[in-house]
Amino acid sequence: MTDVPQPDSMSPISLEEAMRAPRIAIEATEPAVDDGRYAAKAIIGQPVDVSSKIFADGHDQLAAVVCWRQKGEQSWRRARLKLITNDLWQGHFTPTQVGTHEFRIEAWWDLWETYRYELSKKHAAGVPVQLELEEGRLHLERAVQRAQGETRAVLEDIMHRLASSHLDDERVSVMLASETAAAMADADAREHCSASHIFPLEVERPLAQFASWYELFPRSETDSPDRHGTLRDVIKRLPAIRDMGFDVLYFPPIHPIGRKHRKGPNNSLEAGPNDPGSPYAIGSEAGGHEAIHPELGTLDDFRALVSAAADHGLEIALDFAIQCSQDHPWLEQHPGWFSWRPDGTIRYAENPPKKYQDIVNVDFYAKDAMPDLWIALRDVVQGWVDLGVKVFRVDNPHTKPLPFWQWLIADIRSRDPDVMFLAEAFTRPAMMARLGKVGFNQSYTYFTWRNTKAELTEYFTELNEPPLRYCYRPNFFVNTPDINPFFLHSSGRPGFLIRAALATMGSGLWGMYSGFELCESAPLPGKEEYLDSEKYQIRPRDYRAPGNIIAEIAQLNRIRRQNPALQTHLGFKAYTAWNDNILFFGKRTPDRSNFILIAVNLDPHNAQEAHFELPLWELGLPDDAQTHGEDLMNGHRWSWYGRTQWTRLEPWNLPFGIWRWTVPAVEQNG
Question: Which of 53, 393, 400, 493 could potentially form a cystine with 422 if both were Cys, beta carbons 3.0 to 4.6 Å apart?
């Protein structure tokens, strides 16, 4: 048997090429990103659902399998695909290792199933089948010659039973038996076998799909703005962060901060002698991207923090920001890595009308930068990986070359496939998707700016559909040091609860920047930025301050851990609620064994109420069925009767409802 690959195009071919071309078409295979140019994403231990359109000329029956292996392995593992309808075949396989995998679809004429189909129709119609029985015997005889081991023994026993039977009905029963079909499948000659392209698949650990991120500035872990917090101070905060249910503790850059053009409070151009400056102005006489800011501590302190975090079930994520202060050692050691203006001054970073006088960017394609700069940056990441860091948040990756990221991420993950990269990219949709294609495991999103029912429904739905569902994992950050969302400026505590519910329920990945749990929202007038931004000054906090939402955040994270449907952005579906201020949606596992319903009042100032529809049709239930609801925020349980229900959501109490939806056992069994 020779596998025949699918043609690359339908351009004109010669007679010889036509005679060698596959007779079976394999099209529209999923999961695939740009027809296999980039790897789709998967999670270790979770089924990968595969589908293809498979068809051929004539009416013969087909068979198909999905073949998969870890890249570098010689042999394939196989799992059968099932014909669903209209040439659509589906199946799944479950990867058991992280790293790059590949899969393909194989399909062939199933001669025995074709024979069984025709025999059953003729026998049922009362047509004489003596000739068909002889054809079947010849099929079996050839299969015995191909078969080995137990399969051959089974087929020989079947042949013996046929030979000892003199009644056509008995022989037909043997031919149509499931035992015969299984043995013939094992010994199939795979006539006209065709194979699809090979599709890459990147298998990652569960944290790539399900995690709760907490961001803080280590220097603010202090009781006074006059005392610089340290990494050892952060260790004291670990129990509280763990108790809120977070998995990842993320720091803005912890490297030495430059002095030249250091920014003062609220991004002012003049810094006082005690102003700490922006941590994004990386580099001083104390070192660059490989070093720790002296006031934060030492490498030994960092090792102690990583170890303590692990003891609390937390991973440390570092910011990888490819930019330098004008004091960075690289400027003196490698001036050819930077852009210089005609007057001999260095070109600092700009994002008009914003100016970042305290930082300069490297030039990836400068003559002196290739390959030394690329390798130096890779070595920076590898150095932190060697210190136990497996998660990196990358600052503005869309402003750096895509080939660089494709190389760096693959290079790092080739040695440690547990390493993950979060893209902090707020830019055009095509670029954000492409970052996922070249290797970023997660990405920031437009969620921060989606507020209305229509906007949220459209965006959540888009993230669930190809191609984004295969290449883009959305991390719903509710705020960042750079983004103080307009929605939160005047919405008060209810607004923070609304956004927390949307983020935690909408995606398996979400994040918050410290202060959110205290409902901090004071903005720079007219801007989506924080007044007295922590980017430029030390901000101690009283985490026990009245009005905090720490308990609610902890419960939301607890609900996520207890319900598999909430551990991914996939499975979202919007349902009907007759009020434009109430978003009503569901998240469910593929087998619907875990079905969560969420209703969110998007109005932080007023109570909203609505009738809504329970999606009984998705469980195959009639409109008058009885189902059960459990409020996951307070544990209250009740029964729902029928399809149409009613709710009232009050922002001064709780502006959302989260219900686990179940069907009575009697109905499930009946």
Answer: 393
